[in-house]
Structure formats: C-alpha cells, structure tokens
Amino acid sequence: MIQFQALAQTYGTPLYVYDFDAMKEQFEALKEAFRGRKSILAYAVKANSNLSVIKNFAQLGSGADCVSIGEVRRALMAGVPKYRILFSGVGKRDDEIREAIQSDILYINLESEGELARVEAIAKELDVKARISIRVNPNIDPQTHPYISTGLHDNKFGVEIDAAKRMYIHAKNSENLDAVGIHFHIGSQLTQLEPIYEAAVIVADLLRSLQAIDIELKFFDIGGGLGVRYDDETTISPYDYAQAILGALKGIDVTIICEPGRFLTANAGYFLTKVLYEKKNGSKRFVVVDGAMNDLIRPSLYNAYHRIEAVGKTNDVSPVDVVGPVCESGDFLAKNYPLPAMEHNDLLVVHSAGAYGFGMGSNYNTRGRSAEIAVENGEARLIRARETFEDLIALEREYL
Ligand code: LLP
C-alpha cells in the first residue's frame, strides 16, 4: 500500500507517484508471454520519459522506442544499450537522423519515401550503412479513440504496402542502407485482439513476399498499443497477444520487437492533488483542486476516464466536476464523478496516471510542473524536483 497522505505531506501537491515494483511486474509479465522466442521489449519512452523510469526498465533488459533525438539521448543516459534502441516517428530532422546514425542505434524506423532519401543521403555523407526498418500502414481500424488510431490510410503514419516494397528494393540496391526490420503500430489503448492479428498477418505476408525476392529482415516490430484498464475495460492478456503474433508469423524466424508504453506504466502511476475548495453554480457542484490540465491533459484532450479516490473519505457521494485552476472550461480531471463532500486540503488520488501524464504536461498559466516520486520496496524517493518560477523563466530574454 502506497502511503499517499504521507507522500503528499512530504513532497507537496500536485504530485506524480510511480510504483516501480508494479512497473517491473508488468514488464516481466509481457516478457514471459514471449518466452522461448527471440524478442526485445523496447519501452516506448514517450509514455513516461523520466530518466529513472527508463532506467528501471533498462535494468530488466528493456530496449527503448524513441520518437525524437532527445528520447534517444534519454535512453542512452538511462543505460539502455544502443543495440536495443529504435528511433521512430513521422518527421525526423536531418540533425536527428545524423545523430541517430552516429549513435549506432539498432535502427531507424522510416515512415515515408522522402525520409528514406534523407537517411540515405546522410548515411552517404557519413560514409556508413544506416540500419533501417519501414513502418507499414496496414489500413486496419484498431477500434480505439480516433486521436490515438494510427494504422489507417487516413492517418499520417507509415507507408502503404506498395511503397514499402519499393523502399525495401531501393534499400537492397543502396550502398548506404541496410534494411533489417519491418514495423507496424495501429494505435494505442487497444482492447481488441482481432485488428492486431489482422495487421500482423498483412505485415507477415509482406515479410514473406520480401523473402521471396531475397530481402531478409531480422526484426518484426509489432509496435505498442496494448490497452490497460482505466475503468471496466476488458483488456488483452499478454499471452493471447503473443500467441496472436506468433500465429501470424507461422514459424518465420525473426526477432519480435514490441514497443509497449502504457501497458508498462499507466496503472503504476498516480497523480495526487489537493482540494482547494468546493463550490456550486446553481445546482452544479464543483471541486476545485490544485492539479490541472497542464499536469494531466488526458481528460481534457480525449475525454479520458481516470478513477479518482478521495483518501480517507467514506461519506455519501454525489456527482461533481473535478476542475483545476487553469482558465479554460476544458480544464477538468473528471466530469459528473461521484465524490463525497470535500474540504480544503482533502487529498484526491487520480489513478492510472503513469502513462501520458507528466510527459504531456505543460507550463500553461505559468504553472510549474509537479514533482515526481518513485516508490520501490516500500521506500519513496524524489526522481524529479518540482519546477520553480525561476525554472520557468530561465530561458526568457529581454524582459528588463
Ligand atoms: N510505438 C509507436 C510507434 C507509437 O506511436 C506508440 C504510441 C507506442 C509504440 C506506444 O503505445 P502504447 O503502448 O503506449 O499504447 N497520448 C495518448 C497516447 C498516444 C500514443 C502515441 N503512440 C494517450 O494519452 O492516450
């Protein structure tokens, strides 16, 4: 049991708290599902990019899926070996491509023919062969929120099968490209196995047709996306997930790469916020708290549900909007949420906040971002200090 009240007392609120043991358990459960197969779990750093969180996974043998050169640097700093680091993303700058090649990471995931040309040109300048993989857009509806659906032709991600084939053939004939992998990622918070299976079958078929023309790839990268339970969702078990992928591969000898983010961190994270006061506008009840959309934007952006626990309260509940101090009507952590009567300084714990919480935070309204705490073996420690006003203005010039 995490002592939320004591942590709020010691470190103040708003506050992010991560259960490192729970993160490890999730990692081990997924790793176990792929046991007996060559596989790499490459933690999707975007889900929670705190260096200590990445290090926690690196110590278990995790790789890292990165979407900016900043994330690649974080992964290297946190001790992820370069040969388990991937660089994905739909738009990479030349300087990012150059540094990724020079860092000698496992491969760069390409998402367009234009990007293939840039990577080839930069590898030529550096006089090396750049390892690449191609992200295929299998045109599959993942049945998730439209903002986090990525595997349809309507989405900006990846390339069509025909374009992918052209790119692999081009790479085979290039002195500066070494195609080692194939990649797909159809979306996030996936709770249906069928679309994942269908996408895997399409991409495995492409892999076979490439083999037929002597293009041998070592890595089959299935992306991330495994959903978690925020409320009462039925989720995909790691075992069923792995079996579906193996079923699609039907014995093709490749190393499976998986890029889980949310699955590893979401339910191991908590966002602690204190009540400032209750108010009513007409019959509408509001609880105003010290945390806001700049700390946790998921409710505002996706209408996402996060369970909220009123610590130490047991009295009758009635529906309330839990809102932050930011000057936007969209600044809420929950709408019509059943909570008891709240008083100044009561503590609320927002659950499932370990993925896409702090990382999507901002300084809107000149609010410093929260501190982050790790809890491991019953001990708590600060892994990122609370931002101060001085931190916020440190890069501004000419204001005097
Ligand atoms: N690999 C790729 C290529 C991705 O684009 C993503 C997530 C992942 C792996 C990790 O996906 P996960 O296992 O965490 O589902 N901010 C949104 C989620 C955005 C996901 C972006 N891509 C949210 O809060 O729901």
The CATH first-level class of the largest domain comes to: Alpha Beta
- Tell me the β content: 15-25%
Bound molecules: ligand LLP
State the secondary-structure class: alpha/beta
Q: Which value, in Å, is the CA radius of gyration?
A: 23 Å
Give the end-to-end Cα distance, rounded to a whole number of Å.
50 Å
What best-fitting shape do the alpha-carbon axes yield?
globular
Structural domain count: 2
Helical percentage: 25-40%
Low-confidence stretches at least 5 residues in length (pLDDT < 50)? none
- What's the CATH topology name of the largest domain? TIM Barrel
Describe the structure.
Strand 5, helix 6 (113-126) and strand 6 (130-135) form a beta-alpha-beta unit. The model has no long low-confidence stretch (mean pLDDT 96). The protein folds into 2 domains: 4-15 and 267-399, Lyase, Ornithine Decarboxylase, Chain A, domain 1; 34-260, TIM Barrel, CATH 3.20.20. It is built from 12 helices and 17 strands. The relative contact order is 0.15. It has 400 residues and is α/β, with parallel strands linked by helices. The strands form 2 sheets. Strands 1, 10, 11, 12, 13, 14, 15, 16 and 17 form a 9-stranded mixed β-sheet that branches. The protein has helices at 4-11, 20-33, 51-58, 69-77, 94-102, 113-126, 161-172, 193-212, 238-249, 262-265, 298-302, 389-393; strands at 15-19, 39-44, 63-66, 85-87, 107-110, 130-135, 177-183, 219-221, 255-258, 269-281, 284-289, 308-310, 317-323, 332-340, 347-350, 371-376, 379-384. The site of ligand LLP has 21 residues, from helix 10 and helix 11. Residues 44, 47, 65, 88, 148, 185, 188-189, 223-226, 259-263, 298, 302, 355-356 line the site of ligand LLP.
